[in-house]
Amino acid sequence: MTPTSIRNHLRLLVRLICFIAAVLCLLPVGDKDALLVLVPALSPFVTVASILAARTIRPILGLGLVVGLVALYRHRWFCRWACPTGLCLDGASFLGRHLKRKPCRAMSIGRWLFALTLGGAILGSPLFLWCDPLALFSGLFLLAERSQVLAGAVSFLVFTLLLIFSVLWPHVWCRGLCPLGAFQDVLSRMLRPARSIARPQNNASDRNTSGHLVARRTILGLLVGAASASILRIAGREPAQPLRPPGAVDELTLKGLCTRCGNCIRSCPHGIIRRETGRHGIAGILTPVLTFDEDYCREDCTRCTRVCPSGALAGMDLGNKPHIQIGLAQVDMNICLLGEDRECSACMRWCPYNAIGYVFSEAEYTLVPVIDDVKCNGCGACEVACPTSPRKAIRILARADIGP
Fold first, then answer.
1. Quick one: pLDDT at residue 278?
2. Residue that is last in its domain, among 235, 258, 289
3. 100 pLDDT above the threshold of 70
4. SS3 category, 6
């Protein structure tokens, strides 16, 4: 075997090992939140966008920073040696080449996706962070959750389309569409001037011209991304806001910062996190929302915040969770049993924060529930406990939807 053949076999072996490791981290076997976050957190694209948009650096982001630092010296090493999505799509491309399909060579959309996303992240709204290949791969494993098959089917459909495109146009994703690959290209070019000084080439002038062109495109993309984020912040507010998991950043930032990886959904032990279906605007589709149909956000659980790779859900501990505002309970006395002169105290008895009391209302001439908006964090326990059906007399609304 030639040295090149040996290297190719070694690289394939390493890629298979990385693929198996990624699958084991993401499979819903046991309680392994620490492993669940590892795969999407390896992306330097997600790391940099998160730092710019959330204005904070969390320990888990160190993984992406390490990958990015190595990419400065080894061009696209992560794509060639470790990316599980790349391995799947390279397999589809291999099939396409055997079917005599011509490889994709002209597309460079990934550079624009990368630049637009980082430009938007500067103003808090990364536009295409959900296109990260590790986030797309992580989203596939929602299919393994019995209660999330429909949500996982969306990710599966997107991934299947990428496989089909790779068969029809081999390497279309890695060479032309992947923003993580484009980001690694930019990182590698950052050290190219220093390399050219140390090892001058005959075609240095051509490389410099190409480098200047790429730099201009990147800067233009950053500016367009920042401008787009500004427009979204001015005009993108929805009249009704969905309920988000605890620790969620502001609504517009979350829609961009969320990678749609599904980690928060898979980690929730009570199954109250779902994917948004577009009812609150297309920009938030597939982002996490809370539903209190069968359970509530328990006071002793912070798992969803621990597995978020991008910072869309900020980390917290149990000590400060009572002060993290999810929403606020609102009572409809037209439905409440007390309004019909019937006895009920379910919402008060089940509230874990003692945020509900009863006062006598002269207008209603009966006891009415009163919500202490300082104590209430919108956990949903009262909504779950409310016995009225099909509509609940007490519901949790996003605080942005509640008037003064």
1. 77
2. 235
3. yes
4. helix
How confident is the model at residue 207, as a pLDDT?
A: 47
Listed residue (22, 24, 276, 50) closest to 137, CA to CA: 22
* Interacting residues of 33 by C-beta distance below 8 A, sequence separation 6+: 267, 303, 306, 307
Percentage of the chain with pLDDT > 70?
A: 84
Residue 56 belongs to some domain of the structure: yes
Q: Look at residues 186, 220, 235 and tell me which one is the last residue of a structural domain.
A: 235
User: Which of the residue ranges 34-38, 73-77, 224-228, 251-255 would you say has the lowest mean pLDDT?
Assistant: 224-228
Q: Please check whether residue 223 lies inside any domain of the structure.
A: yes
Q: What is the pLDDT of residue 199?
A: 53
Are 337 and 228 found together in one domain? Answer: no
Mean pLDDT of 371-387: 94
Residue 192 structure tokens: 């190219």
How many other β-carbons are positioned within 10 Å of the β-carbon of residue 301? 17
In a domain, 282, yes or no: no
Q: Strand, helix or coil at 124?
A: coil
**Range of 99's domain?**
3-235
- 102 DSSP assignment: P
Which residue type sits at 360? F
- Both tokens of 41, joined, read 């957190």
Does position 197 have pLDDT exceeding 60, yes or no? no
Q: What are 297-341's pLDDT values in tens digits?
A: 999 999 999 999 999 998 888 888 988 999 999 999 889 998 888
CA angle 93, 96, 97 (to 5 degrees): 90
Phi, psi for residue 370 in degrees, rounded to 5: -120, 130
Helix (H, G, I), strand (E, B) or coil at 329: strand
Handedness of CA 98, 159, 228, 47 (dihedral sign): negative
User: 209 with 68, same domain?
Assistant: yes
Based on the structure, what is the number of domains in the chain? 2
Q: What are residue 31's phi and psi, to 5 degrees?
A: -100, 100
CATH number (domain holding residue 366): 3.30.70.20
